[in-house]
Design a protein that fits this description.
Phage tail proteins - horseshoe like beta roll fold, alpha+beta, globular
Length: 458
C-alpha cells in the first residue's frame, strides 16, 4: 500500500521545511486553482477503513472526506468532479483525492468558498441496485456479481482476485430495494477485506499490514546513537522521520481470531464454521451468503479465517508530521521513550493505521488512529427455537456488555531528542498560519522534534 511518491519527495516532506503546492482541478469545468487561490491552511482530508470502537468489522467502505477554502470563483461547483494533487519543492504532483463537491459554503465576507467533498461511493449509500441485481442471471459467481455491481455504479475497480470470488450465489431477494453500498460492504465482508475509494477514484481492496512484520531490528546506528536496522531488506521499506507530537496506546493488542462463523441468523441450521471457539468472528445476515448450504458456508468461513488469522493490532492514537502518501491499512512505527518505570527506556512501537486525518498545506499534520476491543463479542450458538428478534436483542445486549467491560487504560509516551523529559509534559502546538493564502512558507516546522519510523509496503 502507500501512495507512489518518490523517495526524494518523501525525504522533503519529512523535514517540514519545503514549500508545498496544492492544485485543485475541476475537469468538467476545465479550470483549477493553486495556492494563490486557496485560503491559508484550510485543507483537510479524512480517510478510514474502520471507525468503530468495539469489535473489528472487516468491511471498510467508508467515504473519504475532503475540504478546502478557495477564492470565490462565481462558478457552480456543487456536484462537480474534483481532483486534488500535491507537490513539494516544485517537484512532481501526486494525486491525494478524487471525488465530487457535496456542498459549497460562502465564507470570509463572501470572498472564499468552503468546499466539502466526498468520494464516489458516498453517492451510492441509498442508491437502489435491485434493477441490475434482478438481471444478473443467477446462480452466478461473486466475481461476476461484483463486476456487475461496479459497472452499475460506474466506479472502476483495481483488479484483484478475492478469496471467495468463485462462490456461486443465488438470487435471494425477489422484490424490494437493495442499497449499492450494502451490496459492496457484503462483498468485502465475505472476503475478509477492507474496501475504499483510492486517491485516483477507483475502488480498491485493502488488507491490514501487521507492524511486527516490518519493525526495525537492532544493528544500524541512527540518531541519537541508538541502534536499529531500518528495514528487513526484502518486502518492506522503512522511512526514518524525526517529528511527532505524541503517541498514546491501549495496553492490549487485539487477539487473533480463533475461528469464523457464517450464518443467515441465529436460527440457521445450515450455518458454516471453521476453527475453534474462543475469539470467533461472526458473519451474520450477509446478503450474498443467504440461503447457501452448509458446505459452502464452511468454505467461505475457512477462506476468511485463513486470510485474517494472523491479524492483531494495538489500538493507538498519534499526531505527527503530515505524510500525504500514507494510506489506511499501512503500518507505522514510533521510536519513543517510556518513563513509566522512572527511568527512560527506549522502545519501538508498531501500529496499524485504521483512520487518518490530514490537515494543513505548508504545515501538514497527520493524526492516525486505530480503535478496537481486545476480543470479538461472544458468538451465541445456533438455536432453532424461540423468537429470532429476541435472540438478536440478546446478542446486541451481550455486545454492549462486553464492550463496556474492556479497559481503557492508556500508556502515554512522550518524545524528545535524546534528552530526558517528564512524562507529565504535553507538547502543545499552535498553528500560526491564520490568514492569507496557502503560499506562506514556514521557516521551521511547528512540531516538536522526536523520532518516527514510518513503515510501509511499497
Amino acid at each position: 500500500m502507500a501512495l507512489n511518491f518518490s523517495d526524494a519527495d518523501k525525504s522533503k516532506y519529512m523535514t517540514g521545511q519545503y514549500k508545498k503546492q496544492i492544485f485543485v482541478w475541476f475537469p468538467e469545468l476545465s479550470f483549477g486553482v493553486n495556492n494563490s487561490e486557496i485560503y491559508a491552511e484550510s485543507m483537510t482530508l479524512e480517510e478510514s477503513i474502520f471507525d468503530g470502537n468495539g469489535e473489528l468489522s472487516i468491511v471498510g467502505c467508508i467515504s473519504n472526506r475532503f475540504s478546502i477554502e478557495i477564492r470565490n470563483q462565481g462558478a457552480q461547483l456543487k456536484n462537480k468532479r474534483i481532483e486534488v494533487e500535491i507537490s513539494i519543492d516544485n517537484g512532481s504532483y501526486n494525486r491525494i483525492f478524487t471525488g465530487f463537491v457535496e456542498s459549497v459554503e460562502t465564507v470570509r465576507d463572501r470572498s472564499y468558498q468552503k468546499l466539502t467533498c466526498y468520494d464516489a461511493l458516498y453517492k451510492f449509500q441509498n442508491k437502489d441496485f435491485y434493477s441490475a441485481y434482478s438481471q444478473i442471471g443467477f446462480p452466478a459467481e461473486i466475481s461476476y456479481v461484483r463486476a456487475k455491481l461496479f459497472d452499475f455504479m460506474g466506479i472502476a475497480q483495481v483488479y484483484r482476485s478475492l478469496p471467495n470470488d468463485s462462490v456461486q450465489v443465488d438470487q435471494t431477494i425477489e422484490d424490494g430495494e437493495i442499497s449499492c453500498l450494502d451490496a459492496v460492504r457484503a462483498i468485502c465482508q465475505m472476503n475478509g477485506v477492507f474496501g475504499r475509494i483510492n486517491a485516483e477514484g477507483k475502488f480498491q481492496y485493502y488488507d491490514l499490514e501487521i507492524p511486527s512484520d516490518f519493525l526495525p531490528y537492532p544493528g544500524e546506528e541512527v540518531y541519537p546513537s541508538l541502534e536499529f536496522y531500518p528495514s528487513d531488506g526484502s518486502d518492506s521499506e522503512t522511512d526514518y522521520i524525526d517529528k511527532y507530537k505524541k503517541v498514546s496506546f491501549e495496553d492490549y493488542e487485539t487477539a487473533p481470531l480463533t475461528g469464523v462463523t457464517v450464518r443467515d441468523n441465529q436460527s440457521d441450521a445450515e450455518y458454516g464454521q471453521y476453527g475453534t471457539t474462543g475469539n470467533m468472528l461472526l458473519i451474520e445476515g450477509n446478503m450474498w451468503c443467504q440461503g447457501l448450504n452448509q458446505n459452502t458456508k464452511n468454505y467461505i468461513a475457512q477462506n476468511i479465517f485463513n486470510k485474517l488469522k494472523d491479524v492483531s493490532y494495538q489500538p493507538f492514537e498519534a499526531t505527527s508530521i503530515g505524510l500525504p502518501w500514507v494510506e489506511c491499512g499501512d503500518a507505522v512505527a514510533y521510536y519513543v521513550y517510556d518513563y513509566s518505570s522512572g527511568e527512560p527506556i527506549t522502545d519501538v512501537m508498531g501500529f496499524t493505521v485504521l483512520s487518518r486525518y490530514l490537515k494543513g498545506i505548508q504545515w501538514l499534520e497527520d493524526k492516525y488512529t486505530a480503535n478496537g476491543s481486545e476480543y470479538q463479542p461472544e458468538v451465541k450458538p445456533v438455536s432453532l427455537e424461540g423468537d429470532t428478534s429476541q435472540q438478536i436483542q440478546n446478542l446486541e445486549n451481550s455486545v454492549s456488555t462486553i464492550s463496556s467491560e474492556v479497559g481503557n487504560k492508556q500508556d502515554k509516551l512522550t518524545a524528545g531528542q535524546g534528552i530526558i523529559i517528564s512524562n507529565q509534559n504535553e507538547i502543545s502546538v499552535t498553528n500560526p498560519i491564520t490568514y492569507g493564502t496557502a503560499d506562506y512558507v514556514p521557516g521551521t516546522t511547528p512540531l516538536e522534534t522526536g523520532h518516527i519510523y514510518l513503515v510501509y509496503q511499497p
